[in-house]
Write a structure and sequence with these properties.
The chain is α/β, with parallel strands linked by helices and 95 residues long. It has one domain. It contains 1 helix and 5 strands. A 5-stranded parallel sheet has the order 1-2-3-4-5, with no helix packed on it. The longest helix has 20 residues, at 75-94.
């Protein structure tokens, strides 16, 4: 399934392949999951399987398990990170 935003309700039980920008889980989600925005696991939510996400929010009590990986950030974000790394490297060179 491909979608922009997905909300899995408290009694929801979704299994399979999922590609979405944002996902909020109150029930159960299991499978091959790719979230290009934010994956939110609420207090009673359970996420399992192969999970790839850009941003993750897990509320107290929420569960996530399996092969969990973060996505690489966009090139604009990489540039900012590289600049910060250079500043840190320069600080070490001066000591």
């Amino acid at each position: 399934m491909s979608t922009q935003n997905l909300l899995i309700g408290l009694n929801g039980d979704v299994k399979g392949e999922l590609n979405s920008h944002n996902v909020e889980v109150l029930g159960k989600l299991d499978g091959n999951i790719k979230v290009t925005g934010t994956l939110t696991v609420q207090e009673d939510g359970i996420v399992s399987g192969k999970v790839e996400y850009e941003n993750l929010q897990v509320k107290l009590g929420g569960q996530i398990s399996g092969d969990i990986q973060t996505m690489k950030k966009s090139s604009a974000k990489k540039t900012s990170t590289s600049e910060e790394d250079n500043i840190n490297d320069d600080e070490y060179d001066n000591d």
